[in-house]
Amino acid sequence: MELDPTTMTPVINRLKRAQGQLAGVLRLLEEGRDCEDVVTQLAAVSKALDRAGFAIVASGLQQCLAVGDGIDGIDGVDVKKMEKFFLSLA
Questions:
Q1: Averaged over 39-46, what is the pLDDT?
Q2: 29 to each of 21, 78, 85, how far by Cα in Å?
Q3: C-alpha angle with apex 79: 4 to 89, nearest 5 degrees?
Q4: Is residue 68 a contact partner of residue 75, using CB atoms and an 8 Å limit?
Q5: Which residue has the higher pLDDT, 79 or 6?
Q6: Cα(14)–Cα(52) distance, integer angstroms
Q7: Cα dist. 68→43, 60, 75, 76, 82 in Å?
Q8: 74 vs 76: CA distance, rounded Å
Q9: Residue 7 contacts by C-beta under 8 Å, 6 or more apart in sequence?
Q10: Which letter, b or e, does each residue of 66-82 get, where b requires 16 or more Cβ atoms within 10 Å of its Cβ?
Q11: First-to-final CA distance of the chain
């Protein structure tokens, strides 16, 4: 299943922000900053990545549901694969 680029714009923006936050974490480490500051920023990066991942999986699931009439009635969709995607983010 391919992702619709137009619906991925918010995800792309979130990932770009996370990229900037990660650069900030590296900078904090290089500067020898306080552990609490580093961990706080690292948690923000992690949360942004999680949200982006969930948005991608949710978009894929929405596309899958649009072609079927319920989880048991979806044709051509690997439900186990979708479950694995969700669990990989948990």
A1: 94
A2: 13, 42, 32
A3: 70
A4: yes
A5: 6
A6: 7
A7: 37, 13, 6, 9, 14
A8: 7
A9: 59
A10: eeeeeeeebeebeeeeb
A11: 22
Instruction: Locate 21 and state its tokens.
Output: 């936050």
Q: What is residue 71's DSSP assignment?
A: G
Element spanning 60, H or E: helix 35-67
Kindly tell me the burial class for residue 84, based on how many C-beta atoms sit within 10 Å of its own C-beta (0-12, 13-18, 19 or more): exposed
1 and 66 Cβ atoms separated by less than 8 Å: no
Tokens found for residue 48? 């942004």
| pTM for this prediction | 0.70
Question: Can you tell me whether residue 6 is helix, strand or coil?
Answer: coil
- 15, 52 Cβ separation under 8 angstroms: yes
**Closest of 4, 11, 7, 82 to residue 48, by C-alpha:** 11
Whole-number pLDDT of residue 64: 65
